[in-house]
Each structure stands twice: as C-alpha cells, then as structure tokens.
Amino acid sequence: GENVEQHPSTLSVQEGDSAVIKCTYSDSASNYFPWYKQELGKGPQLIIDIRSNVGEKKDQRIAVTLNKTAKHFSLHITETQPEDSAVYFCAANPTGNQFYFGTGTSLTVIP
Amino acid sequence: NAGVTQTPKFQVLKTGQSMTLQCAQDMNHEYMSWYRQDPGMGLRLIHYSVGAGITDQGEVPNGYNVSRSTTEDFPLRLLSAAPSQTSVYFCASRGGGSTNTEAFFGQGTRLTVV
Prior knowledge:
The complex is a heterodimer of chains A (111) and B (114).
Chain A: E1 4-7, E2 10-14, E3 19-25, E4 32-38, E5 45-51, E6 56-59, E7 62-67, E8 72-77, E9 86-92, E10 100-101, E11 105-110
Parallel strand pairs in A: 2-11
Antiparallel strand pairs in A: 1-3, 3-8, 4-5, 4-9, 6-7, 7-8, 9-10, 9-11
Chain B: E1 4-7, E2 10-13, E3 19-25, E4 31-38, E5 42-51, E6 54-57, E7 64-66, E8 76-78, E9 87-94, E10 103-105, E11 109-113
Parallel strand pairs in B: 2-11
Antiparallel strand pairs in B: 1-3, 3-8, 4-5, 4-9, 5-6, 7-8, 9-10, 9-11
C-alpha cells in the first residue's frame, strides 16, 4: 500500500515568518494530495489540495507544490499568524476509496 | 447544514464491553469512512463504505464492525473493547463518486478503554 512520510513532526516559527511542511509518498498511482488542518478538539478540515496534473496551487497565504517525479509535495504558509497554530496532515489518494495520511506536524506560531 | 455528526463525543468503556459509535451525514455523500487517530501515527483507516449495503476493510479493521443500511448513517461497532482501542475516532464522508474529492470529518469521539 501507499506510505506517506511527513516532516517535521513539530515546527515553531515567529509570527510573520514562513512555514514549510514536506511529505513524500511511495505509490506512483497517487493522483490527489489534500492537506488538512486540525485544531485542538476538532476534526481535520481541508485547507488546500492538489491534483497530479498540476505542479503548484495557491490560496492566499497557503500554497502547495507537487513533484511527481520525486514523489514529494509540500505545504507553504507565508506571513504566519497565531491562528495558524494547529496540527497539519498531508495525505495521498492512490485509489478512489482510500486516503493515506502522514503522521502530522504540530505548528506553533509565536506572537 | 450539520455536515458530519458523531456521537458520543467522549466514552469510557471497561475491557470486554461493547458499544456503537454513531456517524450521520446530511450531504448525500456516497462514500463514508472511519479513522482512528493515535499519537505519532496520524489517521488510519478502519473501514469504509462506497454506498448503502457496501462496506470494506481499511488498514486496521480488526476488532471493529460496520454496516451501511442507509446513505446517511455509518455506525462503528466495538464488540469486545480492548485497551488497544483507546483512541480518537473520526468519521468522514466524501461525495463526487469518491474520487479526488474533499473528505469532511466529524468532530471525533474520544474513547478510553480501561
């Protein structure tokens, strides 16, 4: 099956700085890569996703890049704010039915 | 629009007891799934369903049963709880034929087995 690795497991940045989280995957059949944000005591919520026919996607301060040759994708958050503090998960979707998640990154934005 | 609703939010069980975690969605999604979340291990798929009457096993199905009698509901049953099943459980649903579409998660059920 698919294996998704996510790094780092924890990340602290100063408010206003950028944060980058990286994921690698193993199954070349994966063609959909969502990123989820999980706040304390809540379920994960989709913040951005990318499909395999696109190399980069942006949504305001959030961007995701995908390198299918190297099998890695990254989340970039610019101008970080305290409300960005949360746990972030990447995932890969090799078939229509199963998501494989990374182990999560706990992001802390220091005011 | 309620989205995905899970009950209960918290539960403590004794080893050997049984219980059902409830999940309901009001988005008419075909695809529903159950995940467990453990520290340092991310979210792991337990069981999933692609429509009423159809279920299949995910990555960690042992000790859990599911059924899907309606589009809206997808309960998860623990027949004989074990301490290893202490975890946070999330139900999720997807639409659009289940391919390359956003998954919506419930708020989770925190289960402790003593």
